[in-house]
Amino acid sequence: MKTALSIAGSDSSGGAGIQADLKTMTMNGVYAMSAVTALTAQNTTGVTAILNVPAEFLAKQIDAVFEDIRPDAVKIGMVSSAELIETIAKRLCAHHAVNIVVDPVMIATSGARLIDPAAVSALKEKLLPIARVVTPNIPEAEVLSGMKIETKQDMETASKQICAQYRCAVLCKGGHSLNDANDLLCTPDGTLRWFEGKRIDNPNTHGTGCTLSSAIAANLAKGAPLDEAIRRAKEYLSGALADMLDLGHGSGPMNHAYLLSCNE
Ligand SMILES: Nc1ncnc2c1ncn2[C@@H]1O[C@H](COP(=O)(O)OP(=O)(O)O)[C@@H](O)[C@H]1O
Ligand SMILES: Cc1ncc(COP(=O)(O)O)c(N)n1
């Protein structure tokens, strides 16, 4: 069985972060492991507290995983401090990690800030260069590229710029403000490819970014080429959104287990 590691924060409400990643990886057919960067006290309406793990402890978790069950892919999600980002980059390089998917988590769907402003440059300088693909949403792509994104053309320009500067593939997700749920992949050879997605009329989108990046990592772990891993990941995500789970008082989670029957 292929294996994948999520390095991310815990979401106590189970819809995003480590919890979404483990469910997604499992449902995408790989053995899922975790290295927790932070605990969040969180539900569908917001984040009330964040407790980062000490950097040495994060390093121990990553080492423990690599020294025993080597991951075929690694997804990186919420990492809120520069020290933790640097620790991850060092440990992944030491272990020659492959298929690294970086979801540059900055602001939760509920509006909470999940990264220190001072850590953004560490994210750019240390994690993007080791990524097989980075998956910003529009506001994150604006921060990474330094430009405002208002049109499809802007998405293309910003993605090309991030891709050229950090030499990694960029999947710019259109879920937020632009067009349907169409995402743009830009690869270091300069190729652009749009992944068309039909917008599902569901306000419960907590954890969509975490889920997409974990599904990409799982499919890369299984040996899919990047574009096929993205295609399968979008298909899984659309199915989970279309199941119309409705939990909590805010933007709720998706049904990660929609492929299993919930009937008795
Ligand atoms: N309502 C929706 N219907 C279908 N796909 C969506 C919807 N909202 C977001 N997506 C898709 O979910 C993925 C995550 O996108 P997005 O919500 O922008 O990320 P994030 O959670 O990081 O803000 C993308 O593939 C995007 O196209
Ligand atoms: C621990 C943690 N990690 C990431 C997110 C982002 O989630 P979303 O996909 O809703 O923006 C989150 N809300 N909590």
Regarding quaternary structure, how should these chains be classified?
Answer: single chain
Number of strands: 9
- The percentage helix is 25-40%
Mean pLDDT: 94
Main β-sheet, spatial strand arrangement: 3-2-1-4-5-6-7-8-9
Dominant shape: globular
CATH homologous superfamily name? Ribokinase
The CATH topology comes to: UDP-N-acetylmuramoyl-L-alanine:D-glutamate ligase
Strand content: 15-25%
Quick one: CATH class?
Answer: Alpha Beta
Low-confidence blocks of residues:
none
Give the second-level CATH assignment, the architecture: 3-Layer(aba) Sandwich
Please write the string of helix (H) and strand (E) elements. EHEEHEHEHEHHEEEHH
Bound molecules: adenosine-5'-diphosphate, (4-amino-2-methylpyrimidin-5-yl)methyl dihydrogen phosphate
Radius of gyration: 17 Å
What class, by secondary structure content?
A: alpha/beta
Largest sheet: 9 strands, mixed
- Could you give the distance between the termini? 29 Å
Number of helices: 8
Count of individual domains: 1
Domain Pyridoxamine kinase/Phosphomethylpyrimidine kinase: 11-255
Enzyme class: transferase
GO molecular function: ATP binding; hydroxymethylpyrimidine kinase activity; phosphomethylpyrimidine kinase activity
Family: Belongs to the ThiD family.
